[in-house]
């Protein structure tokens, strides 16, 4: 968490994930007005897809996909069915890609 040596740290003012959650940096989109809830959910999903695309372009998994608090603290999204499902799918997809790449590298050595 030192900006001089950690390229993923931005000047956001938070020292930990828990501190960011306490300051409502990644609130779960629940609102009495359904339109706002849907818009916020779509924004989060769009951001996660952008992070996945950036990871596929060669950037670090930790600094792209897992920079999202929703994926780091998945249990927070359990009350929001759509967001929770989407986050679980993103994590499962990342795990699958990592497995395929790892298995391929092992199989290529034996060929």
Query: Separation of termini?
Result: 42 Å
SS elements, strand count: 0
Which structural class matches the secondary elements?
mainly alpha
Largest sheet features: none
Order of helices and strands: HHHH
Question: Strand portion, in percent?
Answer: under 5%
Shape assignment: globular
Give the helix tally.
4
- Helix proportion range: 55-70%
Radius of gyration equals 16 Å
Overall average residue pLDDT: 77
> Poorly predicted ranges (pLDDT <50, ≥5 residues)?
none
Describe this entry's structure for a reader.
- The protein is an all-alpha fold.
- Helix 2 (34-56) packs parallel to helix 4.
- 9% of the residues are buried.
- It contains four helices and no strands.
- The N and C termini lie far apart (42 Å).
List the helices and strands and how they pair.
Elements: H1 17-22, H2 34-56, H3 69-72, H4 81-110
Produce a short descriptive summary.
By secondary structure, the chain is mostly helical.
Key traits:
4 helices; 0% strand; 111 residues; mainly alpha
